[in-house]
Design a protein that fits this description.
2 domains, 40% helix, alpha+beta, four-stranded mixed sheet, 9 helices, three-stranded antiparallel sheet
């Protein structure tokens, strides 16, 4: 009997069985190029018969395939919150996902692979050892670094959106300043009026209400950048707070 260890994914002869490394390379070629083959394989040849056994798993490879366009799934580990998020072709907005669900996704990859091979591939490790809780947890733990995303991933100016993220308020604030307000010489925009309209925009989007102080913290700098005016405390000579030269173009429900 001749035995060899192999990491390669080269295609064999036409009558040779597809190996586990070839199987995953065909599904995820980009990840194979970046992280290497899925397994260390043992090839045993005796009397012209070949037996392939995956004996050690490449944790980096399997962590990377938890997120891939070919399966219409995008997964990130958002480091500021230490939380996994996912979206898909049917769910374009990112939602939180638990490590346990990602472990199940990983196990599903192995199960589908094990069912695809002929008797020339030893599937024992695929079905038992590599699908164990210990290995599944190790894969998802590694995904925290491989799929890591920093605070800019869900920033107010990022195209990536998630369910009820704190940045959603700033996104609405930017839309409020850009589309609802306009420069109008001689006009006065009272802080209370602006706050009321903004709360209405949040309600329309099913977002939580915001305190007046938090509204000021977000909107005042945006108005200054957009219109080059500061919040004043002396409007109408009665201590009313607001902005001069800025007006609301249209209020919800009005034409």
């Amino acid at each position: 009997m001749q035995t060899t260890l192999e990491l390669n994914v080269a295609e064999g002869e036409e009558d040779e069985p597809i190996t586990p490394n070839q199987y995953f390379h065909r599904l995820f070629p980009a990840q194979t190029m970046q992280f290497g083959s899925a397994f260390l394989q043992l090839r045993e040849t005796e009397a012209g018969k070949v037996k392939i056994s995956p004996i050690s798993i490449n944790v980096d490879f399997f962590a990377s395939i938890l997120s891939d366009p070919s399966i219409s799934l995008s997964v990130v580990y958002f480091e500021p919150e230490m939380q996994f998020y996912y979206n898909s072709a049917f769910q374009p907005v990112f939602k939180p996902v638990s490590p346990e669900k990602l472990q199940s996704l990983y196990r599903g990859f192995l199960m589908k692979a094990a069912q695809s091979f002929t008797k020339d591939v030893n599937i024992l490790n695929l079905f038992v050892e590599f699908r164990s809780d210990k290995t599944a947890k190790a894969v998802v733990q590694r995904a925290k670094s491989i799929l890591a995303a920093d605070s800019s991933f869900f920033s107010a100016t990022s195209p990536n959106q998630r369910i009820r993220g704190v940045e959603m308020v700033e996104r609405v604030a930017r839309k409020f300043v850009d589309e609802v307000l306009s420069a109008e010489p001689g006009q006065i925009l009272k802080l209370g009026d602006a706050y009321a309209v903004f709360r209405g925009l949040l309600k329309e989007r099913d977002l939580p209400d915001i305190k007046r102080s938090d509204f000021k913290a977000v909107v005042v700098p945006l108005i200054k950048d957009q219109f080059n005016v500061c919040l004043r405390n002396d409007l109408d000579g009665a201590g009313v707070r607001g902005w001069k030269g800025v007006a609301i173009q249209s209020l919800p429900g009005r034409k």
